[in-house]
Each structure stands twice: as C-alpha cells, then as structure tokens.
Amino acid sequence: MSYFLTQVLNGLSFGLVLSLIAAGFAIVFTSTGVLNFAHGSVVLLGAYLVAVTHPTIGFWAAVLVGVVGAAVVGVLVNALLVRNLADPNPGTAAILMLGVDILLLTELTRRIGNRVLPLGAPWGADVVRFGGIALPAGRVLAAGVAVVVFAGLWFLFARTRLGIGMRAAAADGPTASLMGIRLSRTGATGWALAGVLAALAGVFLTSFPSPGVAPPVALSAFLAIPAWVLGGFDSVPGAVLGGLVIGLVTALTVGYESELHVLGGGFGEVVPYLVMIVVLLVRPQGLLGSKEAVRV
Amino acid sequence: MSELPRRIAGLVLLLVAVALPLVLEDFWLQLGLFVMATMIGAVGLTLLVGVAGQLSLGHAAFAAIGAYVYVWATSESEPTLAGAGLPAVVGLVLAVAVAALVGFVFSPVASRLRGIYLGLATLGLVFLVRHLLLNLDPWTGGFNGRSVEPFTLGGFSFSNRDPDYLAVAGVELEGLHRLWYLFLVLTLLACWLAANLRSSRTGRAWANLRDSETAAAAMGIGVARYKAAAFVVSSGYAGLAGALLALAYGRLAPDVFTLTVSVDFLVMIVIGGLGSVGGAMVGALFVTALPLVLTQYSDALPFMAAPGSGGLDPATTSRLLYGLAIIAVLVFLRGGLAGASRRLTGRRAASGAPDDTPRPTTPIAPGHEAGDRTSESKETAR
C-alpha cells in the first residue's frame, strides 16, 4: 500500500512540474496563437542559466537569473520573429518555433557538451518522510511552488486588468484591440509568463532525483505536450489537470512495469502520447478546453 | 513556348544525374543515395503540409514502418529474426502499402484534426512507433536493429556481386552505382507522380482544403475524405523513403528514425518552399548533404572543430545553419527557395505564393513551381 501511495505522490508531484510547462504552452497559445515547439529548450535554457551562474552569485539569485533570462528570450522570440512572420498563421508559426528550438537546443547542447551540470540546489538529495512514504524534497518543494504559482495565475487572470485583458485578447483579438487592449502587450506578457514557468519547471526537472542539467531535459519537457493537449489547448486549469493525469499515469505505469510487461519495456515513456492520441480522437477539445479552439 | 527552356534544363539535369556515378567517388555516391531517399520523403510531406495544409511531425514514424517492413519482407527467416524471404520488388511495394495502410488506420485522427492539432497527434506517433521497434524484437531486432539484404531484380543484384563485373565506358558499376540508378528511377517516378497529383483534381481539392475547409466543403469536396487521402499518400511516400534509406544504410536501428528526422523533413520542405515539389527536392539536397559534406571536409575547414570538443563540429554547425535557414525563410523569404526563384525569374504566379496560408474568402490555387503554367480560372473552377 505504501508503495502505491509513494507512486501516486511521486506521480502527482511530477505531474505538477509538467503542469507548469503545460500551462506555458497554453498561455502562449491563447495569447498569440503559437504552438511553441521551442518551449522545451526554454526549460533547458532556464536550468542552464541557473547551473552556470549559481557558483558565483548563489542559488536563489541564480534562479532569478534563469527565470528572467527565459522570460526575456520568450519575449524576444515573440517580438523579433513571431510578429515578423512573412506569412503569419498557426502552421508557419509552429514550424518557425521548430527552427528556434533547433537553434537554442543545438547551442545549449554545444555549451553543455557531454557534461551533466550540477544545479546547486540547496535541498540537494534530501528526502522528506512521513508515514512510511519517502519523497524527494525537491519534488515536495516543486508541488508547493506550483500550487503558489497557479494561485498567482488565477489571481492574474481573474482579478487584474492585465489578466482580464489577456483573456479578452485570447477570446477575440480584433474586438479586444478595438476596446483599447494592446495586443502587443498581452502577447509579450504571455510569452514572459511562459518563460518564467518554463525556468521554474527546469529547476525542478534538473534537481534530485534527476542528476543535473543535460540536453535530454528539453526532450522530457515534451511530455508536457500530452498534458497540455489532454487539458484543452486554451485552458490553464486544463493544463494543470492534464499535467496531474499524465504524471500519475506515467508514475503508475513505470512503478508497475513488471506487471505490465506485455506492453513492452519502457512503456511508461510512451503512455502519455498514447493517452494524447486517444484524447484527440475522442474529445479533440480536451478535458477543459473550449470547442472553438479546435475548429480554428 | 516558355516550357521549352525548362524542359531543356530538366533534361540536362537528368543527363548529369545519369552520368555522375561514372565520375564520383564512393562518398559522393553514398551521399547521393541518402539525398534521393530523403527527396522522396520530403516530396510526400510537401503534399500533406504544403499542398493540403496539414502539419505532420510523424513522417519519421512512417519512414520507419516502410524501412522495417521492407527488411522483414526481403530477409530470410532466422532463428531469432523473422523474415518473409520475398523478392525485393515485392518488399518495396509492401513497404509503401503498409506505411500507407498505417496512415489509413491513423486517418480517422488525421481527418478530424486540422493543421497544428494533427501535428501534435503525429508527434505521439513517432514515440509509439519507436516503442514498438524497440520491443518487437522478433521482427525488428530490438535496440540493435537488423541488417538489410541487397536489392535484387530477377537475378541482377544491386550489390558488388551477381554479376561480378559490369562496366560502362570503362567504369566498373559496383553496388553503389547500381543503387544510384535504382534510386534515380524511383525518385523521378515519385516526383513526377507528386507533381501530377498536385495539379490534378485531388491536388486542387487539397489546396482548397488548405485555404478554407468551409469553402472547400461548399464546393462539394469531401473534407474528411480528402484530408485522409492526403495523409495516406504522404505516408506511402514516407514508406518508400524509409525502404530506400534502409538500402542506403545497409543496417537499421530504431535510432535512425527519431523525432529529429521528422523535423528534418519539415525543414527541407520549408526551406524549399511549402507545396513545391522542386523546392522539396532542393531542400532535401541541402539538409541531407550539408552535415555529411561538412564532416567529410572538416579537416580542410579551419573553423571546424572535432566532434564533442565543445567547438563548432560539423553536426552542430549544420544544425545551427538549418535553424537559421528556417527562421530566415519564414521571416524574410516568403515561399522559400521556390518562391524566391519564381520572383527572380519574374514568372511569379498570379495566384499567390506556395504556402499554407488560410485564405478564408476565396479558394486560391496552390502555389506553382516555377513555370507551372495553368491559368487560375482553370485551377479553381472545378
């Protein structure tokens, strides 16, 4: 029983990290209509900045550098590239982001090389125990931070002028623009927020039990795509829910792999994508998404 | 007739392609094989992405299916590895058919989703197929993969034997030479078919779909059916490309068909110009040849560092160049290389650039390749 509980808690805490990334996908998508394939490399970029700056300025300042750096890159990509597309539409924007992803990921891979950079997180390999269940301290912290971040996002979108403006812009850009909402500002805010979420997720993805900052982190961020799709393309709460579901399903598949041997080794890696394909087939708008988003 | 110079240019290119193996070294022959195999895949993808406007990141999965089906069909059964021992031509046909069939099975998803949503679903396909390749050991050889039998056609082998000695103009035609001609014939067939398909009733229906599904449906085009058809055709092309890649590599492993391969195919068609068959071919040449050529000549290039040294090694350099090329094309060069060459020659199609812009008002003909002359009225009035 405690094995099962451990797996569930592991899954949920990992799921919250995925939710952070998935929410970034959803925010960029609603604020500018872009499928941000470069999000995974931004996650890696945030973690990389923390790893290279923490020896000189300390961990917490380094996290700040990572968060700001990732946000700035997001805003720049939007302002310099996405808004200047010769032919702006979701398809070309998605391919453009693939190009940005290739550039960022190649450059980061070149800088990191074969090394695994230590993140320097002060919680190290600590483990939190309660009632026979052990969880990595990083995961517990990740869950706490995610909850705080999501509360902040809720406040932003529900209670502030900026957030309500962003929702209006997402619902109907031209009309929102006529009502005096500056789409360039809501778009930039969306990209900055996504960068912040990506960097935070990067920190938790690369601290214990993960060995450190290495290029495959960008690929594991891909796991957030099924979470995003599952929740619905334009819904931040959906992204959170999707992350939890995917985290849970993955953890349980990995945890009980010996019983699921029929499905082949390493099934835990593909189960999120399987879930995603089934969801797209049965309910293309996702769990909490609005239907319009899918019709385009 | 403005067709004439183009035909002459095409004929000259063809003659060059036929004559090249007589003078090239093995490295270049091998390179040519990879380029031609990826050309076929890129052309198939441009039909789906460029003409029909559906994003796909699953091309590597279908190429993998084609490659493994070909190898399974043509290999003899061994104790640990299954094989059907069929003739190579049958294997090639099966590779295309099975890849297309899997595309067909997936097409309920493909026909319900549009554009980037399909891109996401196909992304999952790459991971699923990779999982199957790793786990279906008896057929795929698992992680280590399996080796590929040489292509044979009625006793004539496309390897260094059977017949042992074959020479034209004093040049001995070895396996690579023979494969070159095989690939050349298949590539020409595939590209010719794709170009015709694009300007056929089906191709015009796809372009209509891309521009506006509603308008297409109003004009009597079965939206779901045509989207599924685009997906199936593109999967078949990927299957053929995969089988040829298997022949070019001589050995298969799941790592040959990663998500990166899917992305590379997309890079090819974007650089070449979405929707253009010629552009896809040029894009495939650029993307496939660049890293191999840089690797081959890295000693002669002073800025090139050894792999893994943290400097600009050939693989890194070529990936940085692709990334830059994609961004440059999408931001500055509307319509890719095909669009640019059309503007340069001043024969810009009156009907717009080859892109996947949704134009909700009027259905507009697909982008033409340079010199692809058909009046717009003929394209739209169906």
Automatic annotation (TrEMBL), chain A:
Please list the GO biological process terms of this entry.
Answer: amino acid transport
The terms describing its cellular component in GO are: plasma membrane
Keywords assigned by UniProt, alphabetized? Amino-acid transport, Cell membrane, Membrane, Transmembrane, Transmembrane helix, Transport
Q: Give membrane topology per the record.
A: Multi-pass membrane protein
GO molecular-function terms, A-Z: transmembrane transporter activity
Q: Which InterPro entries match?
A: ABC_transp_permease, BCAA_transport_permease
Localization recorded for this chain is:
Cell membrane
TM helices/strands, residue ranges: 12-29, 34-51, 57-81, 133-157, 188-207, 213-231, 238-256, 262-282
Highest taxon, organism lineage? Bacteria
Report the main location listed first in the record: membrane
- Family named by the database record: Belongs to the binding-protein-dependent transport system permease family. LivHM subfamily.
UniProt name for this protein: Amino acid/amide ABC transporter membrane protein 1 (HAAT family)
UniProtKB/TrEMBL annotation, chain B:
Compartments, as annotated in UniProt? Cell membrane
Q: Which domain of life is it from?
A: Bacteria
Its placement in the membrane is given as:
Multi-pass membrane protein
Tell me which UniProt keywords the record has, alphabetically: Cell membrane, Membrane, Transmembrane, Transmembrane helix
Its principal location? membrane
What are the annotated GO cellular component locations?
Answer: plasma membrane
Q: Which residues cross the membrane?
A: 29-48, 55-73, 85-106, 115-133, 179-197, 228-250, 320-340
GO MF term list: branched-chain amino acid transmembrane transporter activity
Where in the sequence does UniProt note compositional bias of the Basic and acidic residues kind? 369-382
Which intervals of the chain are annotated as region Disordered?
345-382
A Pfam family cross-referenced in the UniProt record is BPD_transp_2
What CDD domains does the annotation carry? TM_PBP1_LivM_like (cd06581)
Coiled-coil residues: none
What name does this protein carry?
A: Amino acid/amide ABC transporter membrane protein 2 (HAAT family)
Q: Species name for this entry?
A: Geodermatophilus tzadiensis
